[in-house]
Amino acid sequence: MGNVIRTAATLLRIGLAAGRSTPGDRLRWWGLFCAAAAVAFVVLATVATVATYDGRETRADARGPVITFGKDAALLYREGADTVGSRPFSVVFVRPLTAEAPVPAGVTRWPKPGEVLLSPELIRTGSGEGILTRYGRFAGTVTTDGLVTPSERIAYVRVGDGAPRNDPRWMHVSGFGSNGGATGEMVDQPTVTSPILALWALTGLPALALTVVAARVGSRTRDRRSGLLQALGGTWRHRMIVNTGEAAIPATLGTLTALVPYAIASVHSTRLAPTGYILDHRDVWDAWLMACAMAAVSLLVVLGIVVGTHRIQRNGTSTRPTSFSSRVPAWRLALCGVGVALVLTSQYVPRRAQLIVFTSGTVVMWAFLSSVVALLTRHLGSWVADSGRRKGHPGRLIGGRWTHAHPGVIVRLALAMVIGIGIVAQMQVWTSRLGAHSQAAVATHQRIKDTVIEVAASNMTAAQTDHFRSSLPAGTVLLSRTFHDPGPPKDPWVTVGGTCHDLRVLEVECHGSTTAPTGGNAQVEEMRRWYGDVRFVQASRITVKADGAQSLLVVAPAAGQLAAVKQAGFTLPNPSVQVEALGGNWLGSSRTRLPNWIQLFGITGILFILVAGAVSAAAEFVRIRHALAPLSVLTGRRRVFRSVTSWHLTVPLLIATVITGAVTAWHSVFFIALVNEGSVSWTVLAAGISACAAVSLAVGLLGARAAAREAQNWKPAAD
């Protein structure tokens, strides 16, 4: 046992020493440091996501109303909605029935009638729209104990004592602490698997790609050492200890570095740009034990990748290393095929599982597509070498043979470009998934802004509507909107009623009780786009029945009056009022905020890919400058450097770019067909392909330049 421990300690010291003395050690050290930090960062982000979801559920339950149907009701409770900008939020109307009426978490006392409690984020974002006076007198803030996240927007409005107890629109509540329901940010919360899938598809895969690239920096020396250890009788365990020792220090320091942002987020709530979401530090703090355990797991994953990417033949007949630079393993090609198969079969699985299967197949396909490219370029290398030999072209001959013998080099260089193009394309496609109604809402807002405003209310008398009209900004027009549905075979229609004066403002003529549009008024055209068959009628007084088929329309002469209309609407003695611009409920849907999260994950993943590409290219420059330097003596020409690097690096990378562009186009179109929404921006895809083509040319030119500079000082050595 003592000999085993001493042997392991000796091998570990050999690995530690090798990490400080092997060629390109500084580049690999920093590459492994960045890779370990990236993987740990994604893992810790996953931990924070799960912890945040748990904390949100707990706080939502703490404020959830306990509904009762007996006589023990302590207050009346009703949920409504409003918007600040285009972001919706919840407005909770309450009427305590007893002096000891319970309060939810985050509320110390109920305000007086006509007063309102607001969350801090709602005050911050809505102060410019008069949020402090929109619902009544401002009486205080909701504490973080009653918010699912510090960035949540919510308001508690106490109405007067006129709210009837027998009104079915009010819920009778005996207390709080039940299921949180759909209030505030819990209205459209997706399952925890959705952000985790997006995180690992857009950020986790680039982090793993960076790890593979960093692990193979300077791999030739490492492969020769592994072969020597096998020749001396070492087993895979001995080689594992040496390789682990070599990578242990940078990987450990990188993992510890990733804990720094987690520690900051655990003591200070952090706003995540560009989403505007504030990560609650309490949730992050509560998951510290899990974070430490998962950080250790991420370190083991990085070390496992380092060990797994430095293997040798196991048949015992040769000491030649079997690395990624000598051949393309068949299992990598098979896994790429599995990824493509998952993408193709995702449309045939149950609807709820389609996106998960598609995303899983996408990750696998992009991770191993570069191996397919390497296989093709390896065969291309044989053809190029034969062509160079027949025509006496030394650069083509050497470049083709190198490409054939070292496809792993192409894999590592192409990996960054392949995943980079895939991420950019997916970011563009996902951000285009607004849906037909959201796209229509965006188009309407671009054409008429918020000049047509819907006021959803019920059971309003003519006197109440007249009072509401007097509270509106000057120059606005008040109309009624009634939905008619006679049933098949007739189609439904909408009647818009108003006084002749108001209708003429919309360029609608009045002739007794009949009306007809006289021009192409922009607001009228938008009404037709949203309501379909619109018929205008003359009405001297406007009322709203309680049947739910009627509502009000406010047409403003200029944009920017929405806040003032809301101010007027919430002065009505009816807490069910809801005021929003035409199509505003679709304009502020969760899908319009999805692009911000895609940008956050995608930009982080692209950053990791850029680091992987830089490390891979720098490692190749270190290798190629030493290998090519003697050619100037053998050929007597320095043009051979540019020729070799062009055929060995630029041409295969250009082929990889073309293949990646074709696969990306197919993948994006297939995804759009799967979800039945979104669009492909061929301009963005072309820009990504052009950028990768430019990188391919730059890698070849810089490699040739590095070799030419090395040749100036090259001297033969006994190596």
Give the helices and strands, then pairings:
Layout: H1 2-21, H2 25-62, E1 64-67, E2 75-84, E3 87-96, E4 115-118, H3 120-126, H4 131-134, E5 137-141, E6 154-158, E7 171-178, H5 193-215, H6 219-231, H7 236-267, E8 270-272, E9 277-279, H8 281-286, H9 288-308, H10 330-345, H11 351-391, H12 394-405, H13 407-431, H14 435-448, E10 452-456, H15 462-471, E11 477-484, E12 493-498, H16 500-505, E13 508-511, E14 514-517, H17 522-531, E15 534-538, E16 550-555, H18 562-569, E17 578-581, H19 584-587, H20 594-628, H21 631-635, H22 639-675, H23 682-712
Parallel strand pairs: 3-6, 4-5, 12-15
Antiparallel strand pairs: 1-7, 2-3, 2-7, 4-6, 8-9, 10-16, 10-17, 11-12, 11-16, 13-14
Helix pairs in contact: 1-2, 1-7, 2-5, 2-7, 2-9, 2-20, 5-9, 5-11, 5-13, 5-20, 6-7, 7-9, 10-11, 11-12, 11-13, 11-22, 12-22, 13-20, 13-22, 13-23, 20-23, 22-23
Explain this structure.
This protein has four domains: 1-61 and 193-323, no CATH class; 64-179, no CATH class; 330-433 and 596-719, no CATH class; 451-581, no CATH class. Helix 1 packs across helix 2 (25-62), helix 2 (25-62) packs antiparallel against helix 5 (193-215) and helix 13 (407-431) packs antiparallel against helix 23 (682-712). Residues 321-325 have low confidence and may be disordered. It is α+β, with helices and mostly antiparallel strands and 719 residues long. The chain is elongated and about 100 Å long. The protein starts with a helix and ends in a 7-residue tail after the last helix. The protein contains 23 helices and 17 strands. It has helices at residues 2-21, 25-62, 120-126, 131-134, 193-215, 219-231, 236-267, 281-286, 288-308, 330-345, 351-391, 394-405, 407-431, 435-448, 462-471, 500-505, 522-531, 562-569, 584-587, 594-628, 631-635, 639-675, 682-712; strands at residues 64-67, 75-84, 87-96, 115-118, 137-141, 154-158, 171-178, 270-272, 277-279, 452-456, 477-484, 493-498, 508-511, 514-517, 534-538, 550-555, 578-581. The protein has a seven-stranded mixed beta sheet with strand order 1-7-2-3-6-4-5. Strands 15-12-11-16-10-17 form a six-stranded mixed beta sheet, with helices on both faces.
